[in-house]
Specification:
This protein is α/β, with parallel strands linked by helices. It contains 13 helices and eight strands. An eight-stranded parallel β-sheet has the order 7-6-5-4-3-2-1-8. β6, α11 and β7 form a beta-alpha-beta unit. α3 packs antiparallel against α13. The two termini are about 25 Å apart.
């Protein structure tokens, strides 16, 4: 197996997206042909398939791009410690040995603000970033000054990345200036921490709204755009992904700035991860397959990937409990 294709590389030094002035002509000119987008998305799972060693290599790549996440009301310090231990060693050592692979890690650990310091402590020295959800996650309806202050508190606690939620009403009412100003304020509050803008695409109504909101968040300085909180009835989908990554491509072609992408919510099977990786490769290219520009927001995905890797090594599927979070 080609180790260079699967081991986690050091995060590439990429010029950060500083944003640009709001260009309403560009925004209003953005359209989305829903039927064409859905046709394109529907063809990908049938046309792109990898097997055997190639599949194992792609699955190992997927692991390095996971934001291993716990966002439950019953989160405890013990759960976060176990999650961090799994983030450091996401695949059992015997499987890595059989695959002739060195150790790998996940892309980040994502938690609520109250668990940031616990995650930072348990990931010390690992190089794994800590991401905090913020700004009144998941609804984003708390007072604005409190949302901004929540970002600052998470950064102060040691978060390297902040996953913010936008105000959906700005998109639904087409108040693009308000969305831009909100995102700029969130970006400023993040300081050196990178910001992922969660669009909650299942609540935006149309793919055109998704495209326009994606573009505005990038104009306002988002380092990543992310589909969902994972709490909406509809989360990451292939049509939404196609719209968002094409907005990223358009932004890059216009500005020369690379913005990352994070599908989140509902991606729990290894075969689904392969489809998303194939779409990223085809639409954006290999550079976006590194964890500084692509992440899966997931909790159960890692377990299924590890089961698939065990099947690849042994020829038998194992019970899910053999691949727990800690």
């Amino acid at each position: 197996m080609d180790k260079t294709a699967t081991t986690q590389l050091p995060l590439a030094v990429e010029r950060r997206n500083d944003g640009m002035a709001l260009d309403l002509d560009w925004v209003r000119g953005v359209q989305a042909n829903t039927s064409a987008i859905e046709r394109r998305a529907a063809t990908l799972p049938a046309r792109r398939s990898v097997k055997k060693d190639y599949q194992a290599a792609w699955l190992l790549k997927a692991i390095t791009c996971i934001d291993l996440t716990t966002l439950a009301g019953d989160d405890t310090p013990g759960r976060v410690r176990r999650l961090c231990a799994k983030a450091r060693h996401p695949v059992r050592g015997d499987l890595l040995t059989a695959l002739d692979m060195p150790p790998i890690t996940v892309g980040a650990v994502c938690v609520y603000h109250d668990m940031v310091s616990m995650a930072v402590q348990n990931l010390a020295g690992s190089g794994i970033p800590v991401a905090a959800v913020s700004t009144g996650f998941p609804a984003g309806l708390s007072p604005f000054h409190l949302r901004v202050e929540e970002i600052r508190e998470s950064v102060k606690a040691g978060a390297d990345e902040i996953d913010i939620v936008i105000s959906r009403r700005h998109v639904l009412t087409q108040n693009w200036q308000a969305l831009y100003d909100e995102m700029r304020a969130f970006r400023e509050a993040c300081g050196d921490a990178h910001v992922k803008a969660i669009l909650a695409t299942g609540e935006l109504g149309t793919l055109r709204n998704v495209a326009r909101a994606s573009l505005i968040c990038m104009m306002a300085g988002a380092d990543f755009i992310k589909t969902s909180t994972g709490k909406e009835p509809v989360n990451a989908t292939l049509p939404v992904t196609l719209v968002m990554i094409r907005a990223i491509r358009d932004y890059y072609q216009r500005t020369g700035l690379r913005v990352g992408y994070k599908p989140a919510g509902g991606i729990s099977k290894a075969k689904d991860a392969l489809v998303y990786l194939a779409m990223i490769k085809e639409e954006l290219g290999d550079r976006w397959l590194q964890p500084d520009l692509f992440r899966f927001g997931a909790s159960s995905l890692l377990g299924d990937i590890e089961r698939q890797l065990e099947h690849h090594v042994t020829g038998a599927y194992s019970a899910a409990w053999r691949h727990g979070m800690g």
